[in-house]
Structures are given as C-alpha cells and as structure tokens.
Design goal:
InterPro entries: 6-blade_b-propeller_TolB-like. By secondary structure, the chain is mostly beta strands. It has one domain: TolB, C-terminal domain (Neuraminidase, 6 Propeller). About 0% of the residues lie in helices and about 45% in strands. The chain contains no helices and 25 strands. Strands 1-22-21-20-19 form a five-stranded mixed beta sheet, with no helix packed on it. A four-stranded antiparallel beta sheet has the order 2-25-24-23, with no helix packed on it. A four-stranded antiparallel beta sheet has the order 3-4-5-6, with no helix packed on it. A hairpin with a 2-residue loop joins strand 19 and strand 20. It is globular and about 50 Å long. The N terminus is likely disordered.
Length: about 325
Amino acid sequence: MGLCCCKPVVDHDDHHDDKKSVLEPPEVDVSSSSIHPSILSSQSITNPCQLTWVTDVPVHNVDEDEMQRECRVSGLCCLDNGRTVVLDRNNQTIMVFDPEFEYAYRQKIRKQLISLTHFEFDDIAILESGAIGFFNISGKYVTRLPRRFPVRKSSKAITFNGTWFAVLYTIDNKNHIQIYSKTGSEYKDFSLNIQFTKRKYRSNVVVLDKTDDILYVSNMSEKCVSCVNFLGEVIWNSLAVDHITHPSCLVVEGGFIYCCDWMNKGVNLLSLDGKRSSSICVDGAKKARFIAYQRKKSQLIIFTDFKYKLRIFDVHLPPEEP
C-alpha cells in the first residue's frame, strides 16, 4: 500500500458563543399504542441484500513510522467523496483511505480522541475530551475547521444524521444522551436506561435515524438492538431475533439496520420497525467492532479484531418491494 505525505493540521481552539439556545422540541407520540418495548415475533426479510467480499485492508501498518504506540482503533466512518476514515485513539491520529483502498496515510490530530462520525460532504466530527472538533478531508490532506463545540468530558460516542448530533456520556455509571443541533445548540438531554460494557464504548454503538427523532442502540446488556425515542423510552427491541445475541456495532442505510454480532460471523439485517429481520452469512464479521456504509460505491465496511483489518463487501440490493 503506497503512502503519501500530508499537510499539517491547522489547529484552531477558538470557541463559538457558549450560550445555549433552547430549540423547540419535536412532537413525539408517546401514547401506549405507539410504544412496543418488546417485539414478540419477527418475520424474515424475504429478499435481503447480498454481500460479496472484495478485499481485506490491514490498518496497523499505515505509516508505521508515525506510530508511537500500538494501534487502537476507536472509530470508523465513510465520507461522501468515497474515502474511509479510521480513528487510532492511542496514537491520536486518523487514517484516511482512498475509495479504492489503494493508498492510505495518517494525520496527527494532537488531541485526546474518543470517537468520530461523518458530518457533511468531506467533513468529519471527532469526539474529543470535552469537545466536538470538525475536520475537512479533501484530497490527500486534512484541515481543521475553525469551530469546536464543548461537550461533557465523560462523553463516549457520537453520531450525526444530517440534522442532529447525539452524544453518549456517563454520570455516576449511568448513561445519558445529549442532542445538539448542527450549530452546537443543546436542546435535549435524557437518561438512556441501557448499559454497555466499557470496551464497547465506540462509534456505531448509538446511531440516529435518518428522518425520525429516534436512536438505534447496540444493547449489549440485554443482548439485542433497541430503538429509543428522544424521551429515553424504548420503542422496540430485537429480543425475538434469535440470530442477534451479542450486537457489537450497527449502521442505518437504505431503510435497514445492518448489525454485526460479536459472537457470530454473519451480518444481521433489521427493518426500522424491528418487525422483520434476516441474517446474511459472510465470513469475517465475527468480533466486529465497527461497521460503516460507503454510499458512493455501495459497500459495507467492517472493522474486526481478527487480524486487525477492514473487510470490504459489495452490497447487492434486491429489487424494491411493491
């Protein structure tokens, strides 16, 4: 894999006005008829997508000369320009891969990095200790954007859906979610009555829906995927889905939830209402920590602890159901 040089990060620590503005919350139907804490049965998805393995990409040998400590991946996301970004928490760097995975390079961020998410266009948002930092990845360099949102220092994971940021944080060993607008205004803070094991605090553990004000959560404590509204109430969970027993990471794309299981090697597919599911048998998804969807090439990208690599799959979507 070839390497290329990259320009230094332009580091801006200037903050916007920290004054919080309260936004009007959306209307959320919390009547008993709309809340289904447990889906009792799950139908099979009759025509699931097909996954074809393309290649494996090791991440620990990207610019080895720049590594000071053992590589520790703690985030994965895909950009609109086709690039894939991996976060190495130990070395305070991001690894940027081109759409064909033919070259990669490391960029030092010089911050205490925790997690990351795709923001807009060629931008990413990185959850740092006490802040969300923004970076532009255009071509073979990374530039820090001149803005930074303060968040709690106990924040653990971040997700963005085009409208809202959701940040997972802990207080007194209890999990909470903060919702922020794109300008950094906080409008919602609620308790998330779901526990995670410490090693599962990662990106792709909580994912915002694309359109509705709900979260999909990789619920390791109850061994299921849970759907939670912005009041912290469980709408449904996947307890009835036998092939999801140790969900480790998930991503939402094309009206479905793609979910990897820590103990099983397949990729699970869930409908957004939790009522239909399917398991796609592929090798290499066992011990998956992160999953991302590359829209530009219709590829599913999975980072697995097995040989510490990215596994790339082409996604063959079925014809739309009538």
